[in-house]
Write a structure and sequence with these properties.
By secondary structure, the chain is an all-beta fold. It has a single domain (18-139), classed as YVTN repeat-like/Quinoprotein amine dehydrogenase (Methylamine Dehydrogenase, Chain H), CATH 2.130.10. It has strands spanning 18-24, 29-35, 38-43, 50-54, 67-72, 79-84, 86-93, 102-105, 110-116, 121-128, 131-139. Strand 3 and strand 4 form a beta hairpin. The protein is globular.
């Protein structure tokens, strides 16, 4: 049996929405990445209510920016990283919601995965002009 987590709605929402990634950020908080809607924070105690949402701005001619991977920061509990169909890794601080994320430009066309190497390092993988890449030692 499945239970709908969240029903997307609104004047600018297409009929189809795809949840592209989910990451638990705390005991009650989930971060959802979706196409075409962006990033959403959800309190699992009230799954029908999105507490915050943010579209990811796309680079010119890049099409719709879609988050493909969300990971908690290994360094602290309030930061999380986002990568996807855009050329940067975004670092958000939950204390400030989606305001003023830090970004680390990669030069890649798309970044599909993030993994924590240690409390100070993340590794990012993606594609640059069709070739696979790995960006080691991304410092949090």
């Amino acid at each position: 049996m499945t239970t709908p987590l969240y029903q997307f709605s609104g004047p600018d929402i297409l009929e189809r929405n795809v949840i592209s990634t989910i990451q638990r950020l705390g005991p009650w908080t989930l971060a959802l990445g979706s196409y075409p809607s962006g990033i959403h924070l959800l309190d699992i105690r009230q799954p029908s209510l999105i507490s915050k949402s943010q579209q990811i701005p796309a680079a010119p001619l890049a099409g719709q920016a879609t988050p493909l991977c969300i990971r908690s920061s290994p360094a602290n509990d309030h930061d999380f990283f986002v990568c996807g169909r855009f050329p940067a890794v975004l670092l958000y601080d939950l204390r400030f919601g989606f305001q003023n994320p830090h970004s680390i430009y990669s030069g890649a066309d798309s970044l599909a995965s993030l993994v924590s190497i240690s409390s100070e390092r993340m590794m990012v993988g993606g594609a640059h002009r069709g070739w696979p890449i790995t960006l080691p030692n991304l410092i949090a």
